Structures are given as C-alpha cells and as structure tokens.
Amino acid sequence: MENNQSSVKEYFKIISVIHLVMILGVVLVGLVVIFFVADFQQPDTSSEIAGILVYLVPGLVIAGILSSNIIFRIKLNGVIESEDLKLKMTVYRESLIIRYALLEGPALFALAAIFMTNNINFLVYAGLIVVLLASKRPTKKSAFADLALNQQEIASLDDPATAL
Quick check: is 164 in a domain? Predict the structure, then answer.
C-alpha cells in the first residue's frame, strides 16, 4: 500500500512551489508580451475593444481580488471548527490554490489586453496582481492565523514528524 502522507515541511514546500509557479507564470507571460509581442509606439485607444477593455480589465481585477478573498474565507470557515488537522490542511491547500487562480486569471487577462491594444497602461493591473500574489505567500504563520488553530494544533504543525 502506498503512503501518500507528507511532512509539514514538504506540505509547505509544495504549496510554496505552486505559489511561485503561479507568480512566475504571470511574470513570464508579461515579459513575452512586453518584449516580443506588443508595439507600444502605436497604442490602440480609439477602437471599440480598447474602450471596453478600459473598464473590463479593472473590473475583472477588482472581481478577482474580491472573489478570491470571499471564496477563500468561505472554504476555510467550513473547516475551522473541525477537530481534524489533516482535513483543515487539505482544505487550506485547496483554498490557497483557488485563491491564487482567481488572482492569476485577471492578471493574464490584463496581459492579453496589452497584446490586443498595445496599451501599456494595462501592465499596472497585472503588476498589482503580481504584488498581491507575492504578499499572499503561504507560511506556517499565515496558516495558523487563517485556520484559527489552537495551541495543540500549532504544536503539532511545528513538530517535523507530523504527517499530513
């Protein structure tokens, strides 16, 4: 029988790698768009699509930020009262991935808007999301706070022998 349990250190390493990959994905797509695709000498500011994107991109960024926080909280509130630490940590990992994906989507859309209109102003929104994603880095302390863990659960997570 296969053992799918990992240590606390491996758990946080895996979600940290997922977090880093999501940030790098946005950054690398942004670099490709900026250096290889977009021609900022002639931005399209007068077409119909450019007019729509001026409102759509910030709206999606705001919606992404709000929805990521709301869904994150809703998923965690469902397990905060649970006594099962493994369940809490599993839901925490799922919630973080959903949070990161809901933030990454609007950033990639902002980069696509740059591609469509050559308007570098949309880079501000993608940059904002990258900074926000970077600030949401998963750590033990953030897990303790987000899951409202008690002292026994915190001690269990601080023990390197604990399997999740």
Answer: no
Whole-prediction pTM: 0.89
In a domain, 3, yes or no: no
- Where the chain has pLDDT below 50, the residues are 1-2
Q: Is residue 1 part of a domain?
A: no
Do the domain assignments include residue 131? yes
Q: Which residues, including other chains, have CB under 8 Å from residue 84's CB and lie 6 or more apart?
A: none
Give the domain extent around 85.
8-37+45-158
> What does the chain come to in residues?
164
Give the total number of structural domains in the chain.
1
Q: What pLDDT sits at residue 3?
A: 52
**CA distances (Å), 82 to each of 6, 34, 87, in order?**
20, 47, 8
- Gyration radius of the chain's alpha carbons: 19
Cα–Cα distance measured from residue 9 to residue 157, given in angstroms and rounded to the nearest whole number = 9
Contact in structure between 143 and 15 (CB atoms under 8 Å) = no
Tokens of 89: 């940590």
Buried b (16+ CB within 10 A) or exposed e, 17-52: ebbeebbeebbebbeebbeeebeeeeeeeeeeebee
